Amino acid sequence: MNIDGGVNDAREEALTAEVVRSFAAADPRLKEILSALVTHLHAFIREVRLTPEEWSAGIDFLAQAGHITDDRRQEFILLSDVLGASMQTVTVNAPPNPAATESTVLGPFFADGSPLAANGEDIARGAPGSPCWVELAIRSESGDPVRGARVEVWGAGDDGLYDVQRSGEVMANRAHFFTGGDGLVRFWGILPSAYPIPDDGPVGRLLAATGRSEMRPAHLHFLVSADGFAPLVTHLFVSGDRYLTTDAVFGVRPSLVVDFQEHGADEEAPGGRTIAGPWYSMNHEFVLVNEDGA
Ligand SMILES: [Fe+2]
Q1: Which of 15, 69, 209, 216 has the greatest number of CB atoms lying within 10 Å of its CB?
Q2: Contact 280, 262 (CB under 8 A)
Q3: Number of domains in the chain
């Protein structure tokens, strides 16, 4: 690991072991997590032969992430997202059952307290963008409709912003539904648009320094929970989006890419609605698996 003939190797290994031993009295899970964290962190420092200046730059980076974080801006989730840590956590916790709809990241824009909506409602509430009719079927692995599922939906407008990023307190293009016996959710929302993750902070500088895109491909977010089933956190992505292969947060699963159909203004819209311009529609089935993931 270094070239000094082993003196430093022995000191470095002894230090790691000493820190790991310091957790001996901790709760078993906490001990496991901290011991592995320290072991990997020390191995990283030793592998790259981290200099004091680089260590200091890392500390400054984390401090800046803290300073820009507030109730509406969560830079640490963004950092986790762009390092793939969020998606790896999703991946290790996903139900092992291949029948389950695949999971992806929650992202930083979920908000508690979304309005309850009824089937057929328009949840856009002034969010800018083209109207999009969404139909979802919530099914069990055996194909039965799931009654009483809570379905949270949230998405950006075509300005690339979520309601929580705009001034004011209006929750727009965000709602939750409960399924009835047919397991269906239907609503008017906004056609998803690709958007940049907030890039005016340290995470944006990290992306710029590494020549990476700050863009996320167009998507809608969903969180589905129902008694007896494993909760599902996922997105649906718009097929054909130019950023599907360069998602800044590595969240795309091919099974979550779906077609959004374009309709002319002269086509009758669901609910007898009259729409001035083109509108869109999408339908998809979510498959929930049992609580134990089986
Ligand atoms: Fe998003």
Answers
A1: 216
A2: yes
A3: 2
Same domain, 125 and 257: yes
Are 124 and 189 contacting, i.e. CB atoms less than 8 angstroms apart? Answer: yes
pLDDT at 9: 93
Q: What is the mean pLDDT of residues 196-218?
A: 96
Centroid of ligand 1 to alpha carbon of 4 (angstroms): 49
Tokens of 107: 């992202």
The pLDDT tens digits for 1-10 are 555 668 899 9
Asked, for residue 1, whether it belongs to a domain, the answer is no
* Pairwise CA distance, residues 43 & 28, whole Å: 22
CA 107 to centroid of ligand 1, rounded, Å: 6
What are 148's two structure tokens?
């009483």
246 token code pair: 């360069």
**Amino acid symbol at 38:** V
Give the tens place of pLDDT for each residue, 102-123.
Answer: 999 998 889 899 999 999 999 9
Residue 294 has pLDDT above 80, yes or no: no
* Cα(232) to centroid(ligand 1), Å: 16
53 Cα–ligand 1 center, Å: 35
Burial class (CB in 10 A: 0-12, 13-18, 19+), 150: middle
**Position 27 in a domain:** yes
In the prediction, which pLDDT does 3 show? 57
pLDDT reading at 293 higher than 70 = no
Q: From the CA atom positions of the chain, what is the Rg in Å?
A: 23
